[in-house]
């Protein structure tokens, strides 16, 4: 049976988790169901739940197998879904500054060539995107943003590039993210941001919450360097 927001699929994962799948491909309805269940779990977690991990169209519930089991957790999840939980919080709007100057945007010309746009048109298209945080993954603070305009959607590079610095603004397909660590990536690097994503706050370790809207704001190289210096001085 194909999962839907009204009739999700449940999967046992190892001996300590249950995954709820609301769809097989990305859709607004499926992700809304993920967010609604995540919020419901925050206020009414099943016994033994250790963590809920939302993704694009699914949610993973990790539990303590010494306290509960797959059947009990699935029963709790079905109850919450059948209760008709809805997203009742307004998503926050987060502003991320980005500089598109050549030294900080090594792939901008390549993106322009592949999309048939010039540099400024690529930048304008990126700034015009409607971005929402769909999930975290891969590395601490790696927030996957959906909303890259169709004109900029490119497949990943054939091979990853090593040593891509933190703060790089990356795109691939319909997704965008701001890297938080120096590491390899096969995504296209179109700018760099001085906006802190990893926060020195145990209660709020990352700038974004899943479901938040993200707006990119263009800054000059001078403003980028000043923001980076101020951040280093804090």
UniProtKB/TrEMBL annotation:
UniProt keyword terms in alphabetical order: ATP-binding, Hydrolase, Kinase, Nucleotide-binding, Transferase
Superkingdom of the source species: Bacteria
Signal peptide (UniProt feature, chain positions): none
InterPro entries, sorted: CT_C_D, Cyclophilin-like_dom_sf, PxpB
GO molecular function, one term: hydrolase activity
Domain Carboxyltransferase stretches: 8-208
SMART domains on file: AHS1
Record-given protein name: Kinase
Organism, scientific name: Fuscovulum blasticum DSM 2131
Species lineage: Bacteria, Pseudomonadati, Pseudomonadota, Alphaproteobacteria, Rhodobacterales
């Amino acid at each position: 049976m194909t999962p839907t927001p009204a009739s999700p699929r449940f999967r046992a994962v190892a001996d300590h988790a249950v995954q709820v799948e609301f769809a097989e491909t990305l859709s607004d309805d499926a992700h809304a169901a993920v967010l609604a269940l995540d919020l419901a779990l925050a206020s009414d977690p099943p016994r033994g739940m250790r963590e809920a991990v939302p993704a694009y169209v699914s949610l993973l519930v990790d539990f303590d197998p010494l306290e509960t089991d797959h059947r009990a957790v699935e029963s709790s999840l079905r109850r919450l879904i059948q209760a008709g939980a809805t997203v009742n919080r307004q998503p926050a709007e987060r502003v991320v500054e980005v500089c598109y100057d050549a030294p900080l945007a090594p792939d901008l010309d390549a993106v322009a060539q592949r999309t048939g746009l010039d540099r400024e048109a690529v930048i304008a298209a990126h700034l015009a995107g409607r971005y929402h945080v769909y999930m975290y993954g891969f590395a601490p603070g790696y927030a996957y943003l959906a909303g890259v305009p169709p004109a900029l959607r490119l497949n990943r590079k054939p091979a990853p590039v090593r040593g891509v610095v933190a703060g790089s603004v990356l795109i691939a397909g319909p997704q965008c993210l701001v890297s938080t660590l120096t590491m390899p990536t096969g995504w296209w690097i179109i700018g760099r941001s001085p906006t802190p994503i990893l926060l020195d706050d145990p209660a709020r370790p990352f700038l974004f919450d899943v479901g938040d809207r993200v707006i990119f704001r263009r800054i000059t190289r001078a403003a980028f360097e000043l923001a980076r210096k101020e951040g280093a001085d804090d």
